[in-house]
Write a structure and sequence with these properties.
Helices cover about 25% and strands about 30% of the residues. The protein has about 200 residues and is of the alpha/beta class. The chain has a single domain, classed as Vaccinia Virus protein VP39 (Rossmann fold, 3-Layer(aba) Sandwich). Helix 4 links the parallel strand 3 and strand 4. Helix 2 crosses helix 4. The radius of gyration is 16 Å and the shape is globular. The termini are far apart. The structure holds S-adenosyl-L-homocysteine (SAH). S-adenosyl-L-homocysteine binds next to strand 2, helix 4 and strand 4.
């Protein structure tokens, strides 16, 4: 049997990432009817056909960007805002884009009521990134496009990291770790088979 760590090469998750997972109350990010399941290691429905990711995947994606206290991070796919909150525990500023207005509004209110002051949520199409605050130390994408949107590569700092699931709807997606080196060269590593909801509103749709 292949273990996840055989795919990722990570022997253990970073202690600070685990501390952030212990701190952020996941039950506050899911609808009442599934609150009993909030601490299972499962994705859960959050309405509008979307899901809050499985905590392990949130931890892994966070770990992969090697978050630093002075980082500015872009997230595509706010959803419930759970991954946003985990990132905000570890970095200086998180900008997060969500294409479904109602989810963006609910996440904004939820994150504000939990006291986060280093998060900005905007409703918009993540395919184009958020150029106003670019370049980013890291970009985390929580819905799967069929190819890597070029705007996201452009908006990454030299030395920055992009973590993104890429592939066809629900099948054959791979979690990619993309690094832009100091000269702007791109290095891409495929880590793990994954199943994310699709990144919608693509220019090709
Ligand atoms: N990080 C979220 C996961 C939500 S699922 C969480 O922890 O809850 C992925 C989210 O991406 C969904 O809310 C979906 O509406 C959003 N999404 C899909 N396509 C998008 C796009 N083109 N731009 C921005 N958000 C998008």
């Amino acid at each position: 049997m292949r273990l996840t760590r055989d795919f990722t090469g990570l022997q253990a998750l970073d202690e600070q990432v685990l501390a952030a997972l212990r701190k952020v109350p996941r039950h506050a990010f899911v609808p009442k009817k599934v609150q009993d399941c909030a601490y299972l290691n499962d994705p859960l429905p959050i309405g509008y056909g979307q899901t809050i990711s499985q905590p392990y995947i949130v931890a892994l994606m966070t770990d992969l960007i090697q978050p630093q206290a002075d980082d500015v991070v872009l997230e595509i796919g706010t959803g419930s805002g759970y991954q946003t909150a985990i990132l905000a525990e570890l970095v200086q500023q998180v900008y997060s884009l969500e294409i479904i207005d109602e989810l963006a509004e609910a996440a904004r209110e939820r994150l504000q009521s939990l006291g986060y002051e280093n998060i900005e949520v905007r409703s918009g199409n993540g395919h184009f990134g958020w150029p106003e605050h670019a370049p980013y130390d890291a970009i985390v994408v929580t819905a799967a496009p069929t190819g890597i949107p070029s705007a996201l590569i452009e908006q990454l700092k030299p030395g920055g990291t992009l973590v993104i699931p890429v592939g066809e709807r629900m099948f054959g997606q791979e979690l990619l770790l993309i690094r832009k080196d100091e000269k702007g060269m791109i290095e891409e590593k495929s880590l793990l088979p994954v199943a994310f909801v699709p990144l919608i509103g693509s220019p090709e749709d």
